[in-house]
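To illustrate the input format used throughout this study, we show a single complete record. The first block contains the structure-token representation of the backbone; no residue identities are included at this stage. The design step must infer an amino acid for every position from geometry alone.
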């Protein structure tokens, strides 16, 4: 059994995939070939955004967003304490200071804690002993974790009140929906990842940014090619080498044919899991929201015993994430004490993920649930 079964997916898309890949090879347009613009148009239409700018990976997408918004030293960027390292890493790389916000039962950012910490920074108070003095509250960077879009209905008024940019990290949520709006449609800039394990994944690294602002779109297109201006030898700003490979765009276009069907199939799998595992603590999915189910997670103080029981039956698991961001060694200089984001710390100690993809059979789901329930 696979944790995410890309082989079953390949069996469906292989003929179209090979035609598209061969076309790129025959044309020789490996860098910013026509498939790039085709993909960007498809993704922009899907999300309802005016502009999509593809890039090399989800980390570059986040860094490009910070660069385009001119966020740097002296700025505070509020982000979740419970996510993959890249979410906060890019804030530090930009020279800004991450301010870590606890999570709630959705595993996404706690808006109550966000409000408290933004007000503290605005009033010139340190969040921790290691937080620099006199930071300027500049942006909020929520994460749509495990496929569930963050609570933008509450985040947006906070951002407006304090004059914060919103950057949506939807790396795990492409295809998710919040109250009728799709992931990647929130904030001034939203980002996603096409890492192979993501809801829409390529066969390598890839990412994209979305915006409705033509000025930001132009700046982002410049940043992804070394800050180029009118041509590649006219550099008007500092940028990155952050282009999406044309081959990866072709792969994503082949996968696009089955993407919406996969999202629908995962809703069925998730519903079966939630019905059969209802004695466990599971991610809370608010009304009018639909997860893209990048992962299906279970929270239990008996995590190790359950994982070992599944391992004996050759059923893979994963732990996302064993150490919250505010306690990572790399952020030790900020001096967040244990207990400063208590819910994130509790979840990190208890959470694990079981196989989740569109091609799980009823028998496979039942077997997994039986082992989990009896461990």
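Output of the design step:
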């Amino acid at each position: 059994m696979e944790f995410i079964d890309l082989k079953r997916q390949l069996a469906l898309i292989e003929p179209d995939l090979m035609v598209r890949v061969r076309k790129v090879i025959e044309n020789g347009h490996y860098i910013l070939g026509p498939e790039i613009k085709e993909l960007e148009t498809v993704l922009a239409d899907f999300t309802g955004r005016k502009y999509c700018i593809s890039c090399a990976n989800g980390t570059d997408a986040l860094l490009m967003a910070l660069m385009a918004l001119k966020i740097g030293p002296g700025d505070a960027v509020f982000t979740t304490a419970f996510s993959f390292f890249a979410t906060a890493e890019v804030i530090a790389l930009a020279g800004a200071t991450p301010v870590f916000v606890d999570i709630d039962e959705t595993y996404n950012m706690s808006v109550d804690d966000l409000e408290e910490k933004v007000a503290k920074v605005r009033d010139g108070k340190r969040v921790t002993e290691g937080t620099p003095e006199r930071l300027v509250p500049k942006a909020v960077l929520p994460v749509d974790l495990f496929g569930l879009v963050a609570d933008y209905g509450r985040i947006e008024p906070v951002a407006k009140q304090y004059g914060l940019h919103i950057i949506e990290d939807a790396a795990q949520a492409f295809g998710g929906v919040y109250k009728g709006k799709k992931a990647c449609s929130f904030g001034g800039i939203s980002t996603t990842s096409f890492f192979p394990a993501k809801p829409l994944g390529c066969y390598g690294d890839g990412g994209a940014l979305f915006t409705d602002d033509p000025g930001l779109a132009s700046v982002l297109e410049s940043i992804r090619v070394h800050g180029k201006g009118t041509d590649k030898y006219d550099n008007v700003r500092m940028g990155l080498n952050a282009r999406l490979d044309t081959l990866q765009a072709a792969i994503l276009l082949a996968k696009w044919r089955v993407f919406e069907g996969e999202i629908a199939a995962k809703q069925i799998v998730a519903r079966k899991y939630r019905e059969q595992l209802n004695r466990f603590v599971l991610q809370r999915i608010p009304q009018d929201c639909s997860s893209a189910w990048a992962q299906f997670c279970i929270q239990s103080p008996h995590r190790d015993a359950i994982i070992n029981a599944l391992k004996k039956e050759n059923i893979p698991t994963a732990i996302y994430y064993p150490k919250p961001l505010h306690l990572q060694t790399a952020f030790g200089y900020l001096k967040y004490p244990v207990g400063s984001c208590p819910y994130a710390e509790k979840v990190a100690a208890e959470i694990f993920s079981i196989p989740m993809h569109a091609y799980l059979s009823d028998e496979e789901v039942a077997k997994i649930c039986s082992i989990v329930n009896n461990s």
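Structural context for interpreting the output: The first strand starts at residue 51 and ends at 55. The mean pLDDT is 97.
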